[in-house]
Design brief:
The complex is a heterodimer of chains A (213) and B (469).
Chain A lengths: L20 E8 L7 H4 L19 H6 L15 E3 L12 H9 L3 E4 L4 H10 L3 E3 L2 H13 L4 E5 L4 E4 L2 E4 L4 H9 L5 H5 L2 H10 L10
Parallel strand pairs in A: 1-2, 2-3, 3-4
Antiparallel strand pairs in A: 1-5, 5-6, 6-7
Chain B lengths: L5 H8 L1 E4 L5 E4 L2 E4 L5 H10 L9 E4 L16 H17 L2 E3 L9 H7 L8 E4 L13 E4 L2 H10 L1 E4 L3 E8 L8 H12 L7 E6 L1 H4 L3 H9 L8 E3 L4 H7 L8 H14 L9 E6 L6 E3 L7 E3 L12 H14 L14 E4 L1 H4 L2 H11 L9 E4 L4 H9 L2 H7 L3 E2 L20 E4 L15 E4 L2 H10 L12
Parallel strand pairs in B: 3-4, 3-6, 4-5, 6-7, 9-10, 9-12, 10-11, 15-16, 15-18, 16-17, 18-19
Antiparallel strand pairs in B: 1-2, 2-8, 13-14
Helix pairs in contact in B: 2-5, 6-8, 13-16
The chains are: A alpha/beta (213), B alpha/beta (469).
Chain lengths: 213, 469
């Protein structure tokens, strides 16, 4: 992905872009089971667009903890977020990855991701790649010690490098294909199968019962 | 790879094709929408000049933002009013059935779809809401999605998805008195962890679930997602069919008989293979309460907040975070923890039987001094049925407030919120930091009967002490 793509434009102009690499400085956010209520508290969901969500990312955590990584001056402008286990658990709100992306993050590396969060990121073209806990911890430590260091996430080859650090990453083949082929926004491909969809509709009993919704 | 499970059969029947990425294009039989996660999806449709492919397969209601006291329009919260108008316009523009406030059928999306018979076995069901797993109680494959995926379902009635593995989660035996479906699911999450289900659909099986009513099964499946499983389900049986028959959208006459035969054929085969199997004994489950900030930080009501050493390395840091946030030191008995607010409601526990069980505890007793306690029916129909039985009068006589239907203080996108460091006993599903509307507010999850008991005692207590012997 070109990191020059303005994050606010995501979901519109960039939707067919091939996402093969991402690079920039990184932001280590340490902690397991960070839920989407923390990423974007529910009061910010009172909206009909995603505009402006970036400034509210982790609003309550940042307010309560001035040392929160998203508050730290050395991490402003970061493109790569490095998280731990089960990141993005809880609510399905796409507002959470939208807030992260609109803050400026282009790619996320973590020990593991909650299922719905991962799917939301994929549909937005934000790659979420996983690595063993010790790899993630090591990367977080390196970034903390060298906040300005450029990190490259090679989505295509499932690898992260930064200075003398290099490690393999994991990304399932399906999402990998969607990102690197530029079909992560599946809408067009799905709609194009109208005939096959109509066939399934015709075959499923329940949609055709007289009393169906 | 699992074979012969309900999950496999339903997945295969709904597979439109395999996309170039290798993902499955899956047909979605029922799409539910609400005001929070759909506005941007409709905006994307308009921007791309797309239509809604099958408007009759999408059903809308409003639940998260609705005030549960004064529902007069326009809402006092102008942002909530804007969301409301946006949903009304989208449904009108695209010909989508919308159960609005005052229709008699509005309510929490995961309460109204089952109660109207929209939710049926063998369906694939998606909604921009993680608690869509609820509908799996009927033997449907149902899961939460994000807004871009809501757009995809509106435009194509399909989604691009990778197939989940299936874990059979067995619980056998009879629950002790005072132990409810909520305790079962809190116990399972405690044992399997909040990420244990990532990558899996959970098939809940065994005699304990077979003995449950549909409303109890919905409580269990509702919280599959809190254990990391995007989807949870129970094979359909005579209990499912008895619940469904005669509801608004249930098939009729000859089609009913055909439906039952079809649903029976979808049940997991006796020799089905699973990717994993785990088993629990119902007799070991006590009334369960969460003490921390993730739904797996739960303990039996007679236990104490666990010591840091009792956790694996990966869980110790969040346990430390929880002790500090909750102001509960390791070794503290959870029973006796003073509380400020009691909330009965939500898509987990806002159905009629939940209110009936809570009313049994409230009847003839009174909420303790200084406690704010309120009951929020899950839907307009639940409210009306509860009032027909006089439950509202029981609650009000006991000092509980009786409200209008909505999500209320489960997630506090409406006026119902904790204030400051208040601590709630809540029948909802998430005890995350700040979840109930105050950035420092605290939540203890438990069954509705346990919440009612806590309201009366003014502190966490064992509901079994309130039951007739």
């Amino acid at each position: 992905m070109s990191s020059s793509v303005a994050s606010e434009a995501r979901n519109s102009q960039a939707r067919n872009s091939q996402i093969k690499t991402s690079q920039g400085t990184a932001l280590p956010l340490v902690g397991n089971d960070i839920d989407t209520d923390r990423i974007i508290p529910a009061r910010f969901l009172r909206c009909v667009t995603f505009d402006g969500l970036g400034e509210h990312v982790f609003a309550d955590d940042r307010q309560q903890d001035p040392s929160h990584a998203f508050n730290q001056p050395q991490y402003q402008g970061a493109k790569i977020l490095v998280v731990n286990r089960n990141f993005g658990c809880g609510s399905s709100r796409e507002h959470a990855p939208q807030a992260i992306a609109r803050w400026g993050i282009d790619a996320i590396i973590g020990e593991s991701f909650a299922e719905i969060f991962f799917g939301n990121c994929l549909a937005m073209g934000v790659p979420c790649l996983t690595a063993a806990p010790e790899t993630v911890t090591a990367l977080q430590a390196i970034v903390q010690a060298n906040p300005g260091r450029e990190v490259q996430v090679d989505v295509e080859n499932r690898r992260v490098t930064g200075g003398d650090f290099a490690a393999d990453l994991t990304l399932a083949d399906g999402p990998h294909q969607m990102l690197t082929l530029g079909t992560w926004d599946a809408c067009g491909q799905l709609v194009a199968q109208a005939e096959a969809i109509e066939q399934i509709f015709g075959e499923l009993p329940y949609v055709n019962w007289a009393n169906a919704a | 790879m699992s074979t012969g499970t309900l999950f496999d059969k339903v997945w295969n029947l709904h597979t439109v094709g395999i996309l170039p990425s290798g993902q499955t294009q899956l047909f979605i039989g029922l799409h539910l929408i609400h005001e929070v996660t759909s506005p941007q999806a409709f905006a994307m449709l308009r921007e791309r000049g797309l239509k809604v492919m099958y408007p009759q397969r999408t059903v809308a209601t409003v639940d998260h933002i609705v005030p549960t006291d004064n529902q007069a329009r326009p809402f006092a919260d102008t942002l909530a009013e804007e969301m409301m108008q946006n949903l009304e316009k989208n449904c009108a523009d695209y010909g989508i059935r919308f159960y609005n406030i005052g229709s008699g059928s509005q309510g929490i999306v995961h309460v109204i779809a089952p109660e109207q018979g929209l939710t049926q076995p063998g369906m694939t069901i998606a909604c921009g809401d993680s608690h869509t797993s609820t509908h799996g109680a009927f033997g449907a494959i149902s899961f939460g999605i994000g807004t871009s995926q809501v757009r995809d379902v509106l435009a194509s009635q399909t989604l691009a998805l990778g197939k989940l593995k299936v874990r059979r989660v067995e619980v056998n035996g009879t629950l002790q008195p005072g132990v409810y479906a909520k305790d079962v699911v809190l116990h399972l999450i405690r044992k399997l962890g909040v990420k244990g289900g990532v990558g899996y659909a959970y098939e809940y099986a065994g005699t304990t679930f077979e003995q449950m009513t549909m409303e109890e099964r919905m409580t269990v499946c509702n919280m599959a997602i809190e254990g990391g499983a995007r989807c949870g389900y129970i094979n359909p049986d005579s209990v499912t069919y008895a619940y469904l028959q005669g509801r608004d959208f249930a098939p009729l006459g000859r089609e009913w008989d055909e439906a039952v035969a079809w649903w029976d054929s979808l049940r997991s085969d006796a020799d089905a293979t699973y990717d994993d199997v785990v088993s629990f004994d119902a007799a070991e489950i006590d009334p369960t309460v969460t003490w921390g900030i993730t739904p797996d930080q739960g303990i039996g009501v007679s236990e104490a907040v666990p010591a840091p050493e009792s956790f694996g390395e990966g869980d110790r840091a969040i346990a430390q975070e929880a002790y500090a946030y909750m102001d509960l030191a390791p070794g503290t008995a959870i029973k006796g923890t003073p509380i400020d607010v009691c909330f009965i409601g939500s898509c987990t526990n806002g159905r009629l039987s939940d209110l009936q069980e809570a009313a049994k505890i409230a009847q003839g007793r009174h909420v303790a001094n200084g406690i704010k306690a309120f009951v929020v029916p899950g839907s307009e129909r639940v409210k009306q049925q509860a009032e027909a039985e006089g439950l509202d009068k029981i609650f009000e006589a006991a000092g509980f407030e009786w409200r209008e239907a909505g999500c209320s203080m489960c997630l506090a996108m409406n006026p119902d919120k904790l204030q400051g460091r208040q601590i709630s006993a809540s029948s909802s599903n998430r005890n995350f930091k700040g979840r109930q509307g105050s950035a420092s507010g605290r939540t203890l999850l438990m069954s509705p009967a346990m919440v009612a008991a806590a309201a009366i005692a003014g502190k966490v207590t064992d509901v079994r002490e309130f039951l007739p012997i």
